[in-house]
Amino acid sequence: MSHVNYTRWAKYILSIAERNGRKIGTVLDVSCGTGTFCLKLAKRNIRITGSDFSRFMLRKAIGKKSAGTRMPFYVLADVKHLPFKCRYDMVVSLYDSFNYLLDKSDWKLSFQQIYSSLRDGGLFIFDVSTFYNSVYVFRNYVQKEANEQAAYYRKSSFDKGTMIQKTRFEITFATNPKMVYRETHRQRIRMLDEIDRLVLDSPFHIIGRYRDFTFEPGTEASERVHFVLQKRVQADGRIE
Ligand SMILES: C[S@@+](CC[C@H](N)C(=O)[O-])C[C@H]1O[C@@H](n2cnc3c(N)ncnc32)[C@H](O)[C@@H]1O
Question: How many angstroms separate the CA atoms of 60 and 93, rounded?
C-alpha cells in the first residue's frame, strides 16, 4: 500500500473531527489492515486501537514500529462482532473496507457494533469506493510494486451485473521468492443513495458525505466518498 498517502489521510480525518468540534484522544480503526494509518495517529499522541479479522494483516501491523511513538494496540476482530468494552472518541474504517461487507445485514451488524464502541457525540468515519471508480478507474487495473522486502502484483475486474469488484493479489517475499501468496478480495460496490438508506436504518446521524479528500459533496461522479456519522444519545439514554 505504499502508493497510499496515509499522512494526508490522517490529516483529513482529524480535520473532519476539528470541523465538528470534537477533541480526539482515542480512536478505533476497525479494519486497520497493516496499521499504517494507526501509526500515523499514534505519532500524534492519539491512543489508537486497530482491529482486523486478518491475522496476516495484523502480523504486518505489529511489525511496524516508529521510534519514540507508543505502539497502537492491535486486536483480532471481525467488524461484525467487536469485543470492546471502552468507548472511543472516534471510530474509522478506511480504504474501502466497508465495501468488503457484501450483504446489507453485514452493514447493519457492523453499524450496531461500531455505535456501541463509541462515546456519546463520537464520530464514525468510513469511506467507500464508488461505481464510477470501479467502472472508469479499476475495471481492468493492473498494479505492480516492489521493494527490498517484497514484490506485489494486483489485478482488478468489475462485474456490473453483480456489482462485485474482484482484486487478485500476489505477494512474493524476498526471504522466500519461490513461495507466492495469492489472495482474491471481493468487494461490493453500492450506489450512494443505497448507503444513505443503510445509514438511515442505523442508530447513527449522518453529518457529512464528502468527495475524495475534500469537504465538497460526495456524488456518483466521485472516486471515493467519506461518510461522517455521529452517535447522539439523549440525556435519558434514548437514541435521538
Ligand atoms: C483494503 S484493506 C484496508 C486496510 C486499512 N484500513 C488501510 O487503510 O490500509 C481492507 C481491510 O479490511 C479487512 N476486513 C475486511 N472485512 C473485514 C471484517 N469483516 N472484519 C474486519 N476486517 C475486515 C481486511 O482484512 C483488510 O485488512
Answer: 18
